[in-house]
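Z., the sequence and structure:
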Amino acid sequence: MPINELRAITIFARAAELGSLRQAAMAQGISPQAASQALAQLEQFLGVRLFHRTTRNMALTDAGQQFLEAAQPGLLTLQKAVQGVRRAREEIAGPLRIAGPRSTFLSVLQPVLEAFCARYPDVQPDVQLDDRIGNWVMDRIDVGFRSGTSPAEGVIARRLFPLQLVICAAPEYIARHGAPASLADLAAHRCSVYRHPNTGKPMPWSVRVGDSLVEQHLAPALCTNDMDLELQATLAGQVVAQITGVMAAPHVRAGRLVPLLREHASDHLGLYIYYGSRTAPLRARAFVELAVERLLDSPLYMLSAQELEAAPDRLGPSAI
Protein backbone atom coordinates (compact mmCIF):
# COMPACT_ATOMS: atom_id res chain seq x y z
CA MET A 1 0.00 0.00 0.00
CA PRO A 2 1.59 3.31 -0.98
CA ILE A 3 2.25 5.74 1.85
CA ASN A 4 3.33 9.32 2.18
CA GLU A 5 6.73 8.53 3.65
CA LEU A 6 7.70 12.10 4.52
CA ARG A 7 4.44 12.73 6.33
CA ALA A 8 4.70 9.43 8.22
CA ILE A 9 8.33 10.11 9.22
CA THR A 10 7.37 13.59 10.45
CA ILE A 11 4.56 12.13 12.57
CA PHE A 12 6.95 9.52 13.96
CA ALA A 13 9.54 12.17 14.93
CA ARG A 14 6.91 14.40 16.60
CA ALA A 15 5.50 11.44 18.52
CA ALA A 16 8.99 10.58 19.77
CA GLU A 17 9.57 14.23 20.74
CA LEU A 18 6.23 14.66 22.52
CA GLY A 19 5.88 11.15 23.91
CA SER A 20 2.31 10.96 22.62
CA LEU A 21 0.83 10.03 19.27
CA ARG A 22 -2.29 12.04 20.08
CA GLN A 23 -0.25 15.20 20.72
CA ALA A 24 1.77 14.55 17.56
CA ALA A 25 -1.50 14.33 15.62
CA MET A 26 -2.67 17.66 17.07
CA ALA A 27 0.67 19.28 16.19
CA GLN A 28 0.31 18.09 12.57
CA GLY A 29 -3.35 19.12 12.36
CA ILE A 30 -4.66 15.59 11.71
CA SER A 31 -6.82 13.14 13.61
CA PRO A 32 -5.28 10.59 16.04
CA GLN A 33 -6.67 7.83 13.80
CA ALA A 34 -4.84 9.24 10.75
CA ALA A 35 -1.61 9.55 12.75
CA SER A 36 -1.91 5.99 14.03
CA GLN A 37 -2.53 4.69 10.52
CA ALA A 38 0.47 6.62 9.13
CA LEU A 39 2.75 5.23 11.85
CA ALA A 40 1.49 1.69 11.28
CA GLN A 41 2.12 2.03 7.55
CA LEU A 42 5.64 3.35 8.23
CA GLU A 43 6.41 0.38 10.48
CA GLN A 44 5.06 -1.98 7.84
CA PHE A 45 7.13 -0.24 5.16
CA LEU A 46 10.33 -0.49 7.26
CA GLY A 47 9.55 -3.99 8.53
CA VAL A 48 10.28 -3.08 12.18
CA ARG A 49 8.43 -1.77 15.20
CA LEU A 50 9.36 1.77 16.07
CA PHE A 51 7.52 2.13 19.39
CA HIS A 52 6.63 -0.02 22.35
CA ARG A 53 3.03 1.08 22.87
CA THR A 54 0.60 0.62 25.74
CA THR A 55 -2.69 2.36 26.39
CA ARG A 56 -0.88 5.03 28.40
CA ASN A 57 2.73 5.11 27.27
CA MET A 58 4.90 4.77 24.23
CA ALA A 59 8.65 4.38 24.06
CA LEU A 60 11.09 3.97 21.23
CA THR A 61 12.38 0.54 20.36
CA ASP A 62 16.07 0.15 19.61
CA ALA A 63 15.22 0.21 15.91
CA GLY A 64 13.05 3.27 16.50
CA GLN A 65 15.86 5.12 18.32
CA GLN A 66 18.28 4.27 15.52
CA PHE A 67 15.83 5.45 12.85
CA LEU A 68 15.10 8.70 14.74
CA GLU A 69 18.80 9.56 15.05
CA ALA A 70 19.27 8.93 11.32
CA ALA A 71 16.13 10.82 10.23
CA GLN A 72 16.34 13.93 12.45
CA PRO A 73 19.16 15.75 10.59
CA GLY A 74 17.32 15.42 7.29
CA LEU A 75 14.05 16.58 8.83
CA LEU A 76 15.74 19.63 10.35
CA THR A 77 17.34 20.48 6.98
CA LEU A 78 13.98 20.16 5.25
CA GLN A 79 12.29 22.29 7.91
CA LYS A 80 14.87 25.03 7.42
CA ALA A 81 14.38 24.87 3.66
CA VAL A 82 10.60 25.23 4.02
CA GLN A 83 10.96 28.12 6.45
CA GLY A 84 13.47 29.80 4.13
CA VAL A 85 11.14 29.61 1.15
CA ARG A 86 8.21 30.92 3.18
CA ARG A 87 10.32 33.76 4.57
CA ALA A 88 11.61 34.65 1.10
CA ARG A 89 8.05 34.69 -0.21
CA GLU A 90 7.03 37.22 2.42
CA GLU A 91 10.12 39.43 2.16
CA ILE A 92 10.48 42.18 -0.42
CA ALA A 93 14.05 41.19 -1.16
CA GLY A 94 15.96 39.00 -3.55
CA PRO A 95 16.02 38.60 -7.34
CA LEU A 96 13.05 39.73 -9.44
CA ARG A 97 12.96 38.53 -13.04
CA ILE A 98 11.07 40.94 -15.31
CA ALA A 99 10.39 40.39 -19.01
CA GLY A 100 8.97 42.79 -21.55
CA PRO A 101 9.06 43.89 -25.19
CA ARG A 102 12.20 45.71 -26.26
CA SER A 103 10.57 48.07 -28.74
CA THR A 104 8.52 50.96 -27.37
CA PHE A 105 8.77 49.72 -23.80
CA LEU A 106 11.82 51.23 -22.13
CA SER A 107 10.17 54.61 -21.57
CA VAL A 108 7.28 52.84 -19.84
CA LEU A 109 9.34 50.47 -17.67
CA GLN A 110 12.17 52.76 -16.56
CA PRO A 111 10.16 55.15 -14.32
CA VAL A 112 8.39 52.22 -12.64
CA LEU A 113 11.66 50.37 -12.13
CA GLU A 114 13.36 53.43 -10.65
CA ALA A 115 10.48 54.02 -8.21
CA PHE A 116 10.41 50.34 -7.22
CA CYS A 117 14.17 50.16 -6.57
CA ALA A 118 14.03 53.34 -4.49
CA ARG A 119 11.18 51.90 -2.43
CA TYR A 120 12.64 48.37 -2.12
CA PRO A 121 16.45 48.58 -2.32
CA ASP A 122 16.93 44.92 -1.31
CA VAL A 123 15.37 43.67 -4.56
CA GLN A 124 17.71 42.88 -7.45
CA PRO A 125 15.84 43.30 -10.77
CA ASP A 126 16.87 41.05 -13.65
CA VAL A 127 15.28 42.65 -16.72
CA GLN A 128 15.02 40.82 -20.05
CA LEU A 129 13.68 42.82 -23.00
CA ASP A 130 12.85 40.91 -26.18
CA ASP A 131 10.20 41.49 -28.83
CA ARG A 132 9.77 37.75 -29.32
CA ILE A 133 7.14 36.07 -27.15
CA GLY A 134 8.92 33.59 -24.90
CA ASN A 135 7.81 30.94 -22.43
CA TRP A 136 7.39 32.61 -19.04
CA VAL A 137 7.63 29.27 -17.19
CA MET A 138 10.81 28.07 -18.91
CA ASP A 139 12.35 31.54 -18.63
CA ARG A 140 11.52 31.63 -14.89
CA ILE A 141 9.84 35.03 -15.17
CA ASP A 142 8.34 36.60 -12.02
CA VAL A 143 6.59 39.52 -13.76
CA GLY A 144 6.07 40.03 -17.46
CA PHE A 145 4.75 42.73 -19.75
CA ARG A 146 3.23 42.04 -23.13
CA SER A 147 2.00 44.34 -25.85
CA GLY A 148 -0.77 43.19 -28.15
CA THR A 149 -3.42 40.75 -26.99
CA SER A 150 -3.85 39.27 -23.52
CA PRO A 151 -1.28 36.62 -22.51
CA ALA A 152 -2.29 32.97 -22.77
CA GLU A 153 -4.09 31.09 -20.02
CA GLY A 154 -2.00 30.01 -17.06
CA VAL A 155 -1.05 33.51 -15.93
CA ILE A 156 -2.86 36.31 -14.14
CA ALA A 157 -2.94 39.29 -16.50
CA ARG A 158 -4.19 42.87 -16.29
CA ARG A 159 -4.53 45.39 -19.09
CA LEU A 160 -2.69 48.58 -18.17
CA PHE A 161 -3.68 50.86 -21.05
CA PRO A 162 -4.72 50.73 -24.72
CA LEU A 163 -1.87 50.54 -27.19
CA GLN A 164 -2.80 53.05 -29.88
CA LEU A 165 -1.65 52.70 -33.47
CA VAL A 166 -1.39 56.16 -35.02
CA ILE A 167 -0.38 56.99 -38.61
CA CYS A 168 2.24 59.74 -38.39
CA ALA A 169 4.66 61.77 -40.46
CA ALA A 170 7.12 64.54 -39.68
CA PRO A 171 6.32 68.11 -40.77
CA GLU A 172 9.35 67.88 -43.11
CA TYR A 173 7.84 64.87 -44.91
CA ILE A 174 4.50 66.63 -45.32
CA ALA A 175 6.20 69.76 -46.64
CA ARG A 176 7.94 67.71 -49.37
CA HIS A 177 5.34 65.07 -50.23
CA GLY A 178 2.04 66.35 -48.88
CA ALA A 179 -0.25 64.31 -46.63
CA PRO A 180 -2.54 61.42 -47.63
CA ALA A 181 -6.20 62.36 -47.57
CA SER A 182 -7.42 58.74 -47.54
CA LEU A 183 -6.15 55.20 -47.01
CA ALA A 184 -6.07 54.75 -50.77
CA ASP A 185 -3.64 57.68 -51.03
CA LEU A 186 -1.06 55.75 -48.99
CA ALA A 187 -0.09 53.82 -52.14
CA ALA A 188 1.50 57.02 -53.46
CA HIS A 189 3.52 57.64 -50.27
CA ARG A 190 6.72 56.31 -48.76
CA CYS A 191 5.44 54.06 -45.98
CA SER A 192 7.27 52.05 -43.34
CA VAL A 193 6.22 48.48 -42.48
CA TYR A 194 7.15 46.54 -39.34
CA ARG A 195 8.55 43.02 -39.73
CA HIS A 196 7.14 40.62 -37.12
CA PRO A 197 9.98 39.41 -34.82
CA ASN A 198 8.54 35.87 -34.48
CA THR A 199 7.46 35.15 -38.06
CA GLY A 200 9.80 37.46 -39.96
CA LYS A 201 6.91 38.55 -42.18
CA PRO A 202 6.02 42.19 -42.95
CA MET A 203 2.87 43.15 -41.08
CA PRO A 204 0.00 45.08 -42.65
CA TRP A 205 -1.19 48.15 -40.82
CA SER A 206 -4.26 47.59 -38.65
CA VAL A 207 -6.59 50.52 -39.26
CA ARG A 208 -10.04 51.32 -38.05
CA VAL A 209 -12.72 51.78 -40.71
CA GLY A 210 -15.98 52.66 -39.06
CA ASP A 211 -16.52 50.04 -36.35
CA SER A 212 -14.25 47.46 -37.98
CA LEU A 213 -10.54 46.74 -38.06
CA VAL A 214 -9.07 46.38 -41.53
CA GLU A 215 -5.65 45.20 -42.66
CA GLN A 216 -3.98 47.78 -44.90
CA HIS A 217 -1.30 46.10 -47.03
CA LEU A 218 1.44 48.41 -48.29
CA ALA A 219 4.49 48.29 -50.55
CA PRO A 220 7.10 49.44 -48.04
CA ALA A 221 9.71 52.08 -48.66
CA LEU A 222 11.24 50.85 -45.40
CA CYS A 223 10.81 47.47 -43.68
CA THR A 224 12.36 46.79 -40.26
CA ASN A 225 11.91 44.69 -37.14
CA ASP A 226 13.06 47.58 -34.95
CA MET A 227 10.44 50.12 -33.90
CA ASP A 228 13.08 52.58 -32.72
CA LEU A 229 14.65 52.61 -36.19
CA GLU A 230 11.20 53.10 -37.71
CA LEU A 231 10.54 56.01 -35.36
CA GLN A 232 13.85 57.66 -36.20
CA ALA A 233 13.19 57.32 -39.93
CA THR A 234 9.78 58.92 -39.43
CA LEU A 235 11.19 61.78 -37.36
CA ALA A 236 13.81 62.35 -40.08
CA GLY A 237 11.03 62.90 -42.63
CA GLN A 238 11.86 59.79 -44.65
CA VAL A 239 8.61 57.84 -44.28
CA VAL A 240 5.02 57.75 -43.10
CA ALA A 241 4.62 55.12 -40.35
CA GLN A 242 2.02 53.61 -38.09
CA ILE A 243 3.49 54.19 -34.63
CA THR A 244 2.33 53.16 -31.17
CA GLY A 245 0.90 55.87 -28.98
CA VAL A 246 3.63 55.16 -26.41
CA MET A 247 6.29 56.23 -28.91
CA ALA A 248 4.30 58.85 -30.81
CA ALA A 249 2.75 60.82 -27.92
CA PRO A 250 5.79 62.84 -26.78
CA HIS A 251 6.73 63.70 -30.37
CA VAL A 252 3.19 64.71 -31.33
CA ARG A 253 2.99 66.92 -28.25
CA ALA A 254 6.32 68.52 -29.15
CA GLY A 255 5.28 69.08 -32.78
CA ARG A 256 7.90 66.70 -34.19
CA LEU A 257 5.23 64.33 -35.57
CA VAL A 258 1.79 64.96 -37.02
CA PRO A 259 -1.06 62.40 -36.79
CA LEU A 260 -2.56 61.65 -40.21
CA LEU A 261 -5.83 59.94 -41.19
CA ARG A 262 -6.82 60.32 -37.58
CA GLU A 263 -10.20 58.61 -38.00
CA HIS A 264 -8.31 55.40 -38.78
CA ALA A 265 -6.26 55.31 -35.55
CA SER A 266 -6.91 52.08 -33.65
CA ASP A 267 -6.59 51.03 -30.02
CA HIS A 268 -7.66 47.39 -30.11
CA LEU A 269 -4.32 46.26 -28.66
CA GLY A 270 -3.10 46.85 -25.13
CA LEU A 271 -0.14 46.69 -22.78
CA TYR A 272 -0.59 43.90 -20.22
CA ILE A 273 1.22 42.99 -17.03
CA TYR A 274 1.14 39.36 -15.94
CA TYR A 275 2.51 37.00 -13.31
CA GLY A 276 2.28 33.31 -12.55
CA SER A 277 -0.09 32.92 -9.61
CA ARG A 278 -1.54 34.57 -6.54
CA THR A 279 1.15 32.78 -4.48
CA ALA A 280 3.91 34.69 -6.29
CA PRO A 281 6.68 36.13 -4.06
CA LEU A 282 5.75 39.31 -2.25
CA ARG A 283 8.40 41.26 -4.20
CA ALA A 284 6.65 40.27 -7.45
CA ARG A 285 3.23 41.25 -6.13
CA ALA A 286 4.63 44.55 -4.85
CA PHE A 287 6.07 45.32 -8.28
CA VAL A 288 2.75 44.52 -9.97
CA GLU A 289 0.90 46.80 -7.54
CA LEU A 290 3.31 49.68 -8.22
CA ALA A 291 3.13 49.16 -11.99
CA VAL A 292 -0.67 49.22 -11.89
CA GLU A 293 -0.59 52.32 -9.69
CA ARG A 294 1.73 54.15 -12.11
CA LEU A 295 0.55 52.89 -15.50
CA LEU A 296 -3.16 52.06 -15.37
CA ASP A 297 -4.80 54.20 -18.08
CA SER A 298 -1.93 56.69 -17.83
CA PRO A 299 -2.46 59.67 -20.18
CA LEU A 300 1.32 59.88 -20.68
CA TYR A 301 1.24 57.00 -23.14
CA MET A 302 -2.00 57.76 -24.98
CA LEU A 303 -3.06 60.60 -27.25
CA SER A 304 -6.47 61.97 -26.42
CA ALA A 305 -9.04 62.67 -29.12
CA GLN A 306 -8.46 66.37 -28.56
CA GLU A 307 -4.70 65.99 -29.09
CA LEU A 308 -5.21 64.00 -32.27
CA GLU A 309 -7.55 66.61 -33.67
CA ALA A 310 -5.48 69.63 -32.63
CA ALA A 311 -2.05 68.44 -33.78
CA PRO A 312 -2.44 69.19 -37.54
CA ASP A 313 -3.47 72.78 -36.77
CA ARG A 314 0.14 73.55 -35.94
CA LEU A 315 1.05 73.15 -39.60
CA GLY A 316 -1.64 75.49 -40.82
CA PRO A 317 -4.59 74.54 -43.07
CA SER A 318 -2.62 74.69 -46.30
CA ALA A 319 -0.19 71.97 -45.31
CA ILE A 320 -2.73 69.17 -45.01
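The chain has two domains: 5-90, 94-320. The first helix runs from residue 5 to 18.

Let me know what you think.
H.
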